[in-house]
Amino acid sequence: MARAGKPAPALAAAGLAAIAILPGVGPQMSAKLAERGLETLQDLWFWLPRGYEDRTRLTPIRALQSGVAAQIEGTVQAVERGFRYRPQLKVALADESRGTLLMRFFHFRSQQVNQFQPGTRVRAFGTPRPGQLGLEMVHPSYRVLGGEDAELSDRLDPVYPQLEGIAPATLKRLIGEALKRLPEEAELELLPADIARALQLPALREALLTLHRPPADADLNALQSGHHPAQRRLALEEMLAHQLSLRRQRIAMQKHGAVKLGASARLAERLRASLSFALTGAQERVFAEVRADLAQPHPMLRLVQGDVGSGKTVVAALAALLAIDGGYQAALMAPTELLAEQHFNTLRNWLEPLGIDVAWLAGKVGGKARAAVLQTIANGEAKLVVGTHALMQEGIAFHDLALAIVDEQHRFGVQQRLALRDKGRAGADDASSRVPHQLVMTATPIPRTLAMAAYADLDVSVIDELPPGRTPVQTIVLTSERRPELVERIRAACAEGRQAYWVCTLIDESDEVIAQAAQGTYEALVAQLPELRIGLVHGRMNARDKQAAMLDFKAGKIDLLVATTVIEVGVDVPNASLMIIENAERLGLAQLHQLRGRVGRGATASACVLMYQSPLGQIARQRLETMRETNDGFRIAEKDLELRGPGELLGTRQTGLAAFRIADLARDADLLPQVQRIAERLLKEDAACAERIVQRWVGGAARYASA
Ligand code: ADP
Ligand code: MG
Fold first, then answer.
1. Residues 171 and 273 in one domain
2. 201-212: pLDDT as tens digits
3. Among the bound ligands, the one closest to the CA of 279
4. Among 303, 314, 470, 606, which is best to mutate for testing ligand 1, by the most ligand atoms less than 8 A from CB?
5. Model pLDDT for residues 393-412, shown as the tens digit of each residue
6. What's the pTM?
7. Taking the alpha carbons of 44, 46, 51, 53 in that order, is the dihedral positive or negative?
8. Residue 300 belongs to a domain
9. Nearest bound ligand to the CA of residue 332
10. Last residue of a domain, one of 573, 605, 630
């Protein structure tokens, strides 16, 4: 990517100076900070507090509220040093409000004990919790007061995210030193003056100072929830930096050449004619959009969003055929082996009758088979290559890759997507070079505002219609105590020739533990339903066994498939019309929606039973309610955003977004239109300024993210 201009000289002098220039920072400390991506003064300026402590006032002990941090002052009433179970020190304080509070310490030194003579005045800050004898603070920060009245702080105390190996007080001191060297506003501000003024937010310098040392009358609630104007000022600049970075990537990408495709759509027409269904209006529209992009001499960068079951695969197949018709290769990459293999089978069934060779490549393909596939990829015999991440590995050379398709894109990082693109690179890194067109697909619908921020480097098409004849899935929420009824329900459904999934979920467990749990459920169900043919799929099985079980299920040779969430993405067995999800309360909305999307793919009315373990937490209840209320992926995504926030919604692997430090796309979504307007203007009028903003935020953020 072209680097336009250098950081402004003033900033180079101030902000980009090494932390080592600060007093008391030796080589060891520098190294430790650098490990966490803190290298320059600017890095310290932007290392913002994660919260604040209010030591600007005293709270009468009687007015303390459980769970609400506060500062109190009181006189030591009694001290007790105990050794039962483990050493601990208990200090009872009382104040003029005639309230009493217990301070409890588990780690302490003898000299600390001696400080607390009855009658001593102590000021303490902590979060009170109910104990055996009223409220307690465990390990509050405190100080013993002399006779005089100690002054109260006139600023809120910042609490910084912890850095391993660096004492919080040291970090605070360093940030304070760095702030002393904060330049004047004019040098710090990167935005053109008229834009900065129009924001109606504090100037950058003021915003930073407010956030590092808020005045006593600052709105603590706003600060804690991230809604303070000072935070919004920084969030806006950060979002702007990301927006600029993505848009510049796009501009850079579009400077490359690409082969024009679609002169002939003969193969695509033949596939269309051979399908047992007609495309939906939405599929037609999206395919037309893709086709128009492919006809351009620069690379397509298009995201196709479509709810589960909306029929993205066939659109991808048609696009691939345009490439193949032109004499080029296409590749399709999927995030799991199960899904990749299913795509391979589907695409082979569609394309082989047209005389097209489809190749399969996964990490587990080894030895001679691998060598043979690699050869067909390299010599161009393999027209369409389907596989997993293995497609991007070194040593895999395409003959002439013109279209790179990535399915379930949210499972991949941006880097991986680009790596596949690079497989088709030819020539120098400029307009004379050629890169493949890129088509990325996702079934994780995201709200429009978020899409604008997350995919600013992509054009977005939406398949907003399901194929006809689908009956909406009925969703039932049940406690796990009713499991025996469910077993009967499966028995009845399968007796009618229907098929069912039983999904075992465990979160945060190893594959091994999850596999064992699935195995256990499988055995229990085999014992309870002896007349049924039951299969098992989990992540620890080898690919061949997994594949065999899936194929048997698809062919109707298995009635009930017990599975872990490996079946979450993309698996397509239209005859399956009943799904039981065990411990559904443990899953997020996006995942539940994906799983449920495995049923309701045929003409029979389908049901999805969300079984939960009582008691149900507040958020989990809302999630299950949402699932019961709607089948609409976009509504579910909106709700998910509300419940979880965007970081989780998009997955941490979405590198571009995970790196947000201050902005929160849900909270700050209202700033996005402004961000976009400014981005557009800067890209047009002031590339050097855009570069400096990207440098400040994205350069650093990338380092923090990998820390
Ligand atoms: P997804 O968008 O979730 O990847 P798929 O491409 O797997 O969806 O399609 C889901 C199912 O719908 C497949 O069995 C596919 O063959 C079928 N399908 C796709 N388009 C249509 C259509 N227009 N009419 C009927 N069935 C369709
Ligand atoms: Mg799919």
1. no
2. 999 999 999 999
3. 1
4. 314
5. 877 899 999 999 999 776 66
6. 0.70
7. positive
8. yes
9. 2
10. 630
